[in-house]
Amino acid sequence: MITQQERRIERIVLVEPRAPGYHIYSAFTVPRLGLPLMARILRGRGYAVDVFVQEREAVPMSALREADLVGVSATTSTAGEAYKIASFARGMGKPVVMGGPHVTFVPEEALCYCDIVVRGEGDETFPELVDALRDGADLNAIKGLSFYDNTGMVRTEDRPLVCDLDTLPPPDLNTIHFGKKMPIIPVQTSRGCPFHCTFCSVTEMFGHRFRTRSIENVLDELERYNGRRVFFVDDNFTAAPKRTFELLTRMKERGIRLKSWSAQTRVDIAKQPELMELMRETNCTRVYIGFESVNPKTLERFNKRQDVDDVRFAIETLHNHRVRVHGMFMLGADDDTPETIRETLRFANRMRIDTVQFLALTPLPGTKTAHELEMAGRIFTHDWRLYDGHHVVYKPMNMTPDQLQRGILWGMLQFYSWRQALKFAVRLDSLNAALRILGSGLVRKAARASGDFSAWLHSHQDQISDWARARGYEFDASQATERLVEYKRRIKDSALEKYETMRLKISTAYELKTRAAFVSLEGDIDRRRARLIKRRIKKLARSKSTVVLDFAQVQDITPEAGDYLARKLGRFKRSVRIKLIGAKDEFRDKLLGAAKNVPSFEFFDSVDSLQRNLLMPTRI
Questions:
Q1: 273's torsion region: left (phi>0), alpha (psi -120 to 50) or beta?
Q2: Of the candidates 59, 46, 33, which has an alpha carbon nearest to the alpha carbon of residue 130?
Q3: Which 3 state secondary structure label does DSSP give 391?
Q4: How far apart are CA 512 and CA 268, in angstroms?
């Protein structure tokens, strides 16, 4: 709960959390612009701001210790990691603010982990909030906030969207700790989308009104990136074709020559031949288009306002202008069947789309799709880590979740195959051949990363409807193991050396709903037994499960064992998720002291608090 009092706020740390595990975008990181834009505004007000893109660089413990305020942005798939960082910083006594599309739609959930939620666009809200926290001003007067006070949860009036984008400065990309030179520069020229696809949260977050920056304003920013690669992050870069034509024309006249540029657009672009010629002249190399489906009924259900002939014509026209196409297909709608997946693959290969993504329909909070599936009781998990388009989280109408999951993986593996690479090599298209080979490795790596979920989905189809509804833990008895280790420990005193018998019982069981591996420790731990525990964690972590270590029944940990475990737990990869229950204060301090960056482990005081974290709230 936030109290109204003055506080020292000089240093601010902003974090863009990483997505869980490995995914298809892991090799191509383009930071989102919300946090560097905030950094520019706040630096203009005299604050010291650092932005960490966790996909590229871990958040150092030293940065959190020195921060007076921590801000964390969250999309739905990164919400789990965002909550973990927020909880960790809050546990260090730092005020924590969260923002982004996910927490905008579920602020009551986010307030379990942070102090204040900024809803919607935060360009004006967040700087006002920082000043108010510094001065001890009344937060109720600031639009777009959710927080708790003495009366309970407060939701202030919604803040209107920013009408004039020219009033906002360009994002300060230099504030980002990116690890190395940014290969692709993100640039935004507009916000909002005039369309209303049922599965998309963009219009719910940024509105239907298409808001733009002035041409001159955009050119001033682009001038700084002359000779660089640029990605226009607009949801639809060509939503206003005349404006796009003018922007590219003025870019040529001003002598701005980008090494290459790419953008998101729609199939409508094919109906603008003059614009497409200009795109090619200004070094547009690739466009990203949400084709979504080759099933006419699905396109109608998605409210895409396009048909399959439009998709076909767009691909052919773009290729004729030597612009490569990245096509995105959303599979699993109520009119889709397993045959739809096969037909989508045949279409993608027949049309020689350069790169594709076959994604599972994902019910993102705030969308019409999420509301409809929730009301029908078809969503079987709210584990936000799975809401990335690579995992099926609901029950499709005409196939099982397992069929959809395996069908999408099969489609990706067939598209990115050596056989397809060879076909392009025969046509002397070396770039597409190389992309197929690179994609094959990425898809296989992503498949291994989600292997435990796929196996769970296949083996528990009959129980799937009860996964999110059941509230208690439910262990798989067939995989439970128990090991009792007895050993002698030497005790020295003034009279003589003595020995005493020590025991350590290690019990392991897999929990069905959360896919977590519970390791209960009972007895005493010395250095040798600590190594045994570390090996057990490493083995369990290979399955990409969350590992829960329960120290509640541990009587004694020798100093050497504590030091050893602290070092090892502090160095586990970030992909390994470790949660600890019952760790004593001394041991906690050692663990935190050994961690140089935000660690892969987090503490819980009770099984109940852990349960809430693992299961996540079940209401959208």
A1: alpha
A2: 46
A3: coil
A4: 46
Strands (E), 332-467: 355-360
pLDDT at residue 276 greater than cutoff 80? yes
Would you say 485 and 535 are in contact if contact means Cβ atoms under 8 Å apart? no
The enclosing H or E element of 546 equals strand 546-557
Distance CA 392, CA 380 (A): 9
* Rounded-to-integer distance, Cα 590 and Cα 566, Å: 6
Predicted local distance difference test score (pLDDT) of residue 578: 87
Say if CB 61 and CB 24 are below 8 A apart.
Answer: no
Neighbours of 420 (CB within 10 A): 21
- Residue appearing with tokens 């940014």: 182
Torsion sign across C-alpha atoms 433, 436, 439, 445? negative
Is residue 310 a contact partner of residue 267, using CB atoms and an 8 Å limit? yes
Quick check: 46 pLDDT over 90?
yes
Report pLDDT digits (tens) over 119-172.
999 999 999 999 999 999 999 999 999 999 888 899 999 999 999 999 999 999
pLDDT tens digits for range 450-487 = 777 787 777 666 554 443 334 356 666 666 777 888 77
| DSSP string computed for 474-504 | -EEEEEEEEEEEEEEEEEE-SS-EEEEEEEE
Longest Cα separation, the chain: 97
| Residue 596 three-state SS | coil
Task: Specify whether the CB–CB gap between 330 and 358 falls below 8 A.
Answer: no
DSSP states of 68-132: SEEEEE--STTHHHHHHHHHHHHHTT--EEEESHHHHH-HHHHTTT-SEEE-S--TTHHHHHHHH
Dihedrals φ, ψ of 14, to 5°?
-115, 135
Helices 418-426 and 430-449: crossing angle in degrees, nearest 10, is 170
What CA–CA distances, in Å, run from 412 to 239, 281, 290, 336?
29, 32, 16, 17
Residue recorded with tokens 């999951």:
405
* pLDDT tens digits, one per residue of 554-589: 888 888 888 898 888 877 766 678 888 888 888 888
Long-range contacts of 339-343 (CB under 8 A, 24+ apart): 340/293, 340/294, 340/295, 340/298, 341/404, 341/407, 341/408, 341/410, 341/411, 342/407, 342/411, 343/294, 343/295
CB 307 within 8 A of CB 345: no
Q: How many CB atoms lie within 10 A of CB 6?
A: 10
